Amino acid sequence: MIFSGVQQGSTVIDPDSNLPANADTIVVNGITYTFSTAETGGALNDGDKTVFTSVTATGDNLATLLIDLEDAIEANDPSFASGGSRVQARSTGTGLTLVDTLVLTSLATGSYDVVTSGVTSAARPAEVDGTSFSSTTITVNTKAGIKFNSDGLPNEFNIAELEILDFSDGAANMDDDPANSPQITVDFGTIGEANGMTQFGASYTPVFITQNGSRFGTFAGVSLNTSGLMTALFDNGETRPIFQLPVATFTNVNGLEGRTGNVWNATEDSGDFTLRTPDNGPAGQTIQSALEASTVDIGEEFTNMIVVQRAYSAAAKIISTADQMLEELMRTKR
User: What predicted TM-score, i.e. pTM, was given to this entire model?
Assistant: First the structure.
């Protein structure tokens, strides 16, 4: 059995060696797991700390061992959640016989040790970063994603890809599995250069700002131009066209039929109306907040003026009469 150190502290069990012997042990994150050739019940996935190891002629011994070891770690160590990706029996293809690697990744809670002295020997050495030795403790480190030097420039990147799992809509996981989608490649720039992620603690002045959006705005009103385009206005300075106001024209406007309230109806003489864009061809302009002279009923306006004038005269007469009564009262007193 060979244990190999992999980037980010992963630990790999390689199939090209002997299986652990009965009563061999491995310690992962302070918990000891014992290999047994006669595990109680002889079944996988029982959740205890005994890992079934048996030499058979079926060729699936290592695959069986690794799956049972993964289940035992997930069942006994809260740091390795069941069904998660921090401990996995990896496959190079399909089928149980191709599950030949156990990968232990780093934990967000900090470093932990994998003690291989219970399964390694001169005949079955452990290999960490290319160095072989018969008994060892492998420290799985949790490294910072990005480190910066005193100048605010990056001097270490420990993130290369982003893995996204368990989409709620059933989309394929982005985990580099051939059956799913590849992970997202992350580019934070070049180490020692300010062409990507930087960390400057001092004050600074932006040289330029590129903006492709704006803050949330509430509706503030509408405006209408001479061509009939109605535009919504928002308090963040944004505008949005919402409606094109048409103007109806007739072939014979003198053939329209007048109605009460200065309203006109189409008739056979006037012909059907044609909707046009204002300020174009025979259609006039649309002027915001203006009242056309043609919309004023002269007779009605004169009537209103006379009514107001009579009311004013009556009020003036009342004041004059009251003044005369007061004057008569004063003479009577004298």
Answer: 0.40
